[in-house]
Amino acid sequence: MKKSQFPFKSLLIITVVTFLLYLFWGNTFAYPLIIQLRAKKVLIFLLVGVSSSISTLAFQCIVNSRFLTPGILGMESFYRLIQTLLYFFGFRFIQTTLLPATQFLLVVAIMVLSFWALSRFSWQNISYDLHSVLLIGMVIGMLFSSISTFFQVLMDPNEYDRLQMKLFPTFQNVNTLVLILAILLVVPIIISLWNNRKTLEVLRMGTEQAVNLGIDTNKQIKKVLLQIVILSAVSAALVGPMMFLGFTTANLAYLLFRTYRMDVLFLATSLLGFIALLMGQFMVEQVFQFQTNASIIIEWFGGILFFVLLWKERKKA
Amino acid sequence: MLKKLIRIIPLILIVLLSLIVGTADISVGSIVTGDMDALFIFGSSRIPRTVSVFLAGSGLALSGMVMQTITQNRFAAPDTIGTVESAKLGMVLAMIVLPNMTQMWEMLFTFAFATIGTVFFLFLTSRFPMKKQLLIPLLGLMFGNIVGGFSNFLAFRYDLNQNIAAWLQGNFSLIIQGQYELIYFALILVIGLYFFADYLTVVRMGEDAAQSLGISFKWVVGSASLLVSVTVAVILITAGSLPFLGVIIPNIIAMKYGDNIKKTHQKVALTGGFFLLICDIISRSLIAPYEVPVQLILGIIAGAIFLYLLFKEVRRV
């Protein structure tokens, strides 16, 4: 524990500094308004950063691999499919007239319900063949993306442009009510995962160990997986699909703290997720003048990190 | 002899069906009597289509077989270890760098990236523990997602997205004389395999076994990846991406006839070709006179078979 004290303090300091920097840097005219707008975005960063970091962390515990993210469950392609179908069949009334809050709940509900249905019908004992379950997710994801492609090709180009806005993550224009709903959904799950952290630590050691230590692995893994799905669905519906944010923060946390204690990792990844989004958006607003997108910077960074880690793993073997 | 004949008849029927099905009515009679219009449609559209569908199917099935051999992993294939995504990146770059290029340049770019991506991934994972059969395709999927992220972003910036989606959608409806001949390159793989099969069989047994038989493992893996990349690039340019074919066909054949490549590669090639032909016939007749992209049909049929194989694997564990 002593060893991990140091980065924690500096991490907290970095968080506060980036937070203040983001909130107060730049144009001083119309200050109250700008700060109000930025404060809302900060809340979104906190929510997305924490939920995607923690869901990845929990996912990596149950699959015993630091290379995977919940992204491979095929949730993203499902999100893409839902959005594509909504636009294709001209359900734009849902996009325009229906309350954004209802829309948000609809997308989350569809994603979670279909995962639940799939898990009901497809596997009995998930803990023994988790990798196959993931591969099934991947196959379904590929199928979804070919259906999306089919409709995207048929689509009117103007409509397609509008769809594009939904398929790339953005942090602009999040409805306040939606944000509140998202917080209401996410906070209980995060608390539950936190309370469950000892079990996750045990699950990380592998199914057999966990069974020996008296854990109902089947039940636990199913539960955690469902929680992960809800978290990813919420953040996808809120800002759009982001695959590598959680991957980046979780792996940075392993590298910085060199521990597998869940309480340390939980806090560290959450802070890192928050910092990453703050810094990313700060750079987008102040350096790149909105020429690019915070999520793209983070995704690229995560992608490069993935290769570096694979490379290191290779050397170890 | 009789048995062989019985086996060949359905295959001939499939080819005939593929030649006859289509918007313009062509009866067998009009060809025999030498009706000029019928002969023209036949030569410029029907035959090219049948040939290219067949070659694409067998090329992808063989690519999958080769990849499964060199990775010693039953779930490796062009679309599960990132070859297709890398090729896509090459195609996007080609479109940006040389907007008015010929098909040959396009192919070179696509081929170069497909090779780099494949070899890079194989290199990174070559020392990974083999016991985790399902980890390689999952890592490949992550890899593919990263590479795909790059190309999506580029396509987004240059407003090529719908264009590329259209291009990549597996579809043979645009294949007419003068636009498909590139696919003959897929024959390289078929021919290459005739000389290669023995080496590949040895390579399947692992690096040490190959070494002790005086075969350079690296050389075989390198040249096999080259062959596969050419094939995948060519198929991607002429027909688009065709998911799952590379995984399921070699697996089905291996289940029935074992792993001796020299004995099975013809079967793999033929089954892949005829399987895709059947899918293509379905895609043409489902909503005739229009057609559904074959990617969709293939995705559904082959996806279902893939899921079945996976569930079987799950039960076996």
Automatic annotation (TrEMBL), chain A:
Keywords of the record: Cell membrane, Membrane, Transmembrane, Transmembrane helix, Transport
Entry's SUPFAM superfamilies? ABC transporter involved in vitamin B12 uptake, BtuC
Example of a GO MF term: transmembrane transporter activity
GO CC terms of this entry: plasma membrane
Q: Which GO terms describe its biological process?
A: siderophore-iron import into cell
User: Where is this protein chiefly located?
Assistant: membrane
Where would you find the membrane-spanning parts of this chain? Answer: 12-35, 42-65, 101-118, 130-154, 174-194, 224-257, 264-284, 290-311
Record membrane topology: Multi-pass membrane protein
Location in the cell: Cell membrane
Which superkingdom is the protein from?
A: Bacteria
Similarity remark: Belongs to the binding-protein-dependent transport system permease family. FecCD subfamily.
Protein known as: Iron chelate uptake ABC transporter family permease subunit
From TrEMBL, chain B:
Specify the protein's topology with respect to the membrane: Multi-pass membrane protein
Transmembrane feature ranges: 47-67, 108-128, 134-156, 182-200, 220-247, 268-287, 293-311
The protein's GO terms of the molecular function aspect are: transmembrane transporter activity
Keyword Transferase listed? The answer is no
One Pfam family it belongs to: FecCD
Q: Does the keyword Transcription apply?
A: no
Q: Which Gene3D superfamilies match?
A: ABC transporter involved in vitamin B12 uptake, BtuC
| Any one GO cellular component localisation term in the record | plasma membrane
Q: Cross-referenced InterPro entries, in alphabetical order?
A: ABC_BtuC-like (IPR037294), ABC_transptr_permease_BtuC (IPR000522)
Q: Where in the cell is it found?
A: Cell membrane
The family database entries (CDD domains) matched by this protein are listed as: TM_ABC_iron-siderophores_like (cd06550)
Q: Mind listing the UniProt keywords for this protein, alphabetically?
A: Cell membrane, Membrane, Transmembrane, Transmembrane helix, Transport
Q: Name one GO biological process term.
A: siderophore-iron import into cell
The similarity comment for this entry is: Belongs to the binding-protein-dependent transport system permease family. FecCD subfamily.
Quote the protein name from its UniProt record.
Iron chelate uptake ABC transporter family permease subunit
Q: Which organism is it from?
A: Jeotgalibaca porci
